[in-house]
Automatic annotation (TrEMBL):
Gene Ontology CC terms, in alphabetical order: plasma membrane
Record keyword Membrane present: yes
UniProt main location, coarse: membrane
Taxonomic placement: unclassified sequences, environmental samples
Subcellular location: Cell membrane
Protein's UniProt name: Polysaccharide biosynthesis protein
TM annotation in the entry: 42-69, 90-110, 122-140, 152-174, 180-203, 223-244, 256-278, 290-315, 321-345, 357-375, 381-402
Nucleotidyltransferase in keyword set: no
Keyword annotations from UniProtKB, A to Z: Cell membrane, Membrane, Transmembrane, Transmembrane helix
Topology class, membrane: Multi-pass membrane protein
InterPro entries: Poly_Biosynth_Transport (IPR050833)
């Protein structure tokens, strides 16, 4: 066990995980400050708009994750020209997507206002700016990780956290929904530019060379799985804003914010440390047992915290104006715990060779989304659907078959037998 944790706490995983946790903490402090300053109705609208922005921009993160292996391979071969080509394609994709998003936002201003019960179209434009800035930040961080600039990745998260702390102070002093969303867009844009500069410096003098892409298995499953998880994470907040009264939607989104904070905290330790077991084929079976035991313990512990201290959690997130939503927090903790552990298990199972897990989660996410749209008499009913859907996703991700992993000893034994056989013929 000592060797296991010693090998797990490698520099890249520790730096990336700690920096990510810091940035997520800064984000939730910012969102909490907005919820305190704006109150349940307006604060709930803000959280719903941010949920929509994150749901759209998270696909840039998925694209960055899919590009990372190719960029890392080119970096290892010192092929800066190939990295430059991939960075250019990513930038063009981001720019084209941003233009398309602006066109769609302008075309759907009326339906968008109806969906979120808005009377200010400027808020939709600011939300689009949040999407664009966050997508650029996701892509640039994927590239700095792929070229092994974990120092830049860490400082990027520190800069984002500091800027969000400053913006949170401005929101508390001058509570305004326009200021809240606009300041978030500015923070994300500045953080993205800070992160992009080292990537630009890395490739600017390189001669562009179109790289040969490696054939990798599992990328489609990864994209499908994390797309489904993104929908399950953020769609309910948007639906709540559209289906429920503004005050009730505000209480619901405060509970959802607490749940997402829990997901970030819970996902850190298993994802950074325990997923390293996926690469230890020699201790595959024992590693599996230890991994799932840790996942179960984290999940049960989180559920207990939300069940015992719902009022305290809600006051910390949004203030005493949200106390009426305490029963929602206790229930949402179950759903958030299950989805958090699903994120961890999906990463682990894909790294172990699971190839059908993405399709399973797509089906579950679609069924959950349909159930929320059909069965929405109250906020509690939405949470009930989430509990059922997220629990099913966790069970499905655990049970979905993976390709069998043989230990190194078995592989060496088979190789030795072949060598012996060839020497006697």
């Amino acid at each position: 066990m000592k060797r296991l944790f010693a090998s797990a706490l490698v520099r890249d995983g520790a730096v990336a995980g700690a920096a990510n946790l810091l940035a997520n903490g800064g984000s939730f402090v910012y969102y909490s400050a907005a919820a305190h300053a704006l109150g349940p109705a307006t604060g709930g609208l803000f959280l719903a708009l941010i949920a929509a922005a994150l749901l759209i921009s998270v696909f840039a993160n998925i694209a960055g994750v899919a590009l990372t292996p190719d960029v890392a391979r080119l970096h290892a071969a010192n092929d800066r020209g190939g990295v430059r080509v991939l960075a250019g394609r990513a930038a063009l994709g981001w720019l084209a997507s941003g233009i398309a998003l602006i066109v769609v936002a302008l075309a759907l201003t009326g339906p968008g206002e109806s969906l979120f019960h808005l009377d200010d179209p400027v808020l939709l434009i600011e939300t689009g700016a949040v999407v664009a800035a966050n997508a650029l930040l996701f892509l640039t961080r994927a590239f700095v990780q792929a070229i092994a600039r974990f120092d830049v990745y860490a400082w990027s998260n520190v800069v984002e956290t500091i800027l969000k702390a400053i913006a949170a102070g401005a929101i508390v002093a001058f509570p305004s929904l326009r200021l809240t969303i606009g300041s978030l867009a500015a923070v994300l844009a500045l953080s993205a530019l800070f992160t992009a500069w080292p990537v630009f410096a890395y490739v600017r003098r390189a001669r562009p060379v179109v790289p040969a892409f490696a054939q990798r298995s599992g990328v489609r499953s990864l994209i499908a799985a994390f797309s489904a998880l993104a929908v399950m994470t953020f769609a309910d907040g948007i639906i709540a804003r559209h289906m429920l009264a503004p005050f009730d939607a505000g209480l619901y989104n405060a509970a959802a914010l607490a749940g997402r904070a829990l997901m970030s905290a819970l996902g850190f330790l298993p994802l950074v440390i325990l997923s390293k077991l996926a690469h230890d084929r020699e201790e595959s079976e024992r590693g599996d047992r230890f991994f799932y035991a840790a996942v179960g313990a984290c999940c049960l512990g989180a559920i207990a915290i939300f069940a015992l201290f719902p009022t305290f959690i809600l006051i910390a997130v949004g203030g005493r104006a949200y106390v009426a939503g305490a029963p929602l927090v206790a229930l949402y903790g179950i759903a958030a715990s299950a989805l958090s552990m699903t994120n961890v298990v999906v990463s682990y199972r894909i790294s172990r060779g699971a190839r059908t897990i993405g399709r399973v989660l797509i089906v579950i996410a679609a069924a959950e989304l349909a159930a929320m749209l059909v069965y929405h008499p109250s906020a509690a009913a939405l949470v009930d659907v989430l509990i059922a859907g997220h629990t099913l996703a966790l069970v499905g991700s655990c049970l979905t078959g993976a390709r069998p992993q043989r230990s190194r000893r078995a592989i060496d034994a088979q190789t030795g037998a072949r060598s012996a056989g060839s020497s006697t013929t």
